[in-house]
Amino acid sequence: MGILLYSASALAIIGKMRALTVKTIQTPSHPEAKMLFWVLFAGSRGSITRIRIISLLKNRPYNTNQLSIELSLDYKTIQHHMQTLEKNNLVSKLGMGYANTFFPSQFLESNMGLFDEIGTKLGQSN
Fold this sequence. Notes:
Layout: H1 8-19, H2 31-41, H3 47-57, E1 62-63, H4 64-71, H5 75-87, E2 91-94, E3 101-104, H6 106-110, H7 112-121
Antiparallel strand pairs: 1-3, 2-3
Helix pairs in contact: 2-7, 4-5
């Protein structure tokens, strides 16, 4: 088994993730929305990448390739996260195939305060 090495900033974020729970989220919203946001943006692997993606999409629409370049991540990694966000109704897409353009969904827009609170508590908000 390999040894995982984390930078000091990664360890700080992991510590914040452990301290953040559904009960510590103060923004009023539906309990199921809180649990979904907690799992996707604080309680699972890749949550910081999803926060970075949504933070970009708040400002303007992007396609998968543009997100890949902007975040300096592999195209397949971004594609995986976009599928996860779309499956959970947090992004909407327009277009087909390679030219899919992603936008925040109505559900995400109506719960943006919840997203912002989680991002702020993890030190990842824009």
